Amino acid sequence: MGIFDNFFKKKSSGEVAKDRLKLLLVSDRSNCSPETMELIKNDIIKVISKYMEIDSEGLDIQITQNHDETEGPALYANIPIRELKK
After folding, report:
1. Rounded to whole angstroms, what are the CA distances from 51 to 15, 24, 27, 30, 54?
2. Apex CA 9: angle with CA 85 and CA 40, to 5°?
3. Residues in contact with 38: Cβ distance below 8 Å, sequence separation at least 6, in sequence order
4. How far apart are CA 31 and CA 65, in angstroms?
5. Over the stretch 16-66, which tens digit does the pLDDT of each residue have?
6. Which of 4, 17, 53, 54 suits a disulfide with 83, CB 3.0-4.6 Å?
7. Can you give the C-alpha Rg of the chain in angstroms?
């Protein structure tokens, strides 16, 4: 499977709705707009794809708010790696 296969694969309407809901939930928790979250996700995919083949459909990013006021929000990314590039 090539790197660009995921970019041209059609998603079902259910998958699209699920992705939108995930973005809304994450953006609501982080006070970050869904558009900004999508830009962050796309940038992460673009950079990591230079070095390894990843499952962009399985990519999950979250921004969490810490309850401790001395620390700011944290970005967590779960990125399924298919293969390292040489």
Report:
1. 27, 29, 28, 29, 9
2. 65
3. 23
4. 9
5. 777 777 666 655 666 677 788 788 888 888 999 899 998 888 888 877 766
6. 53
7. 14
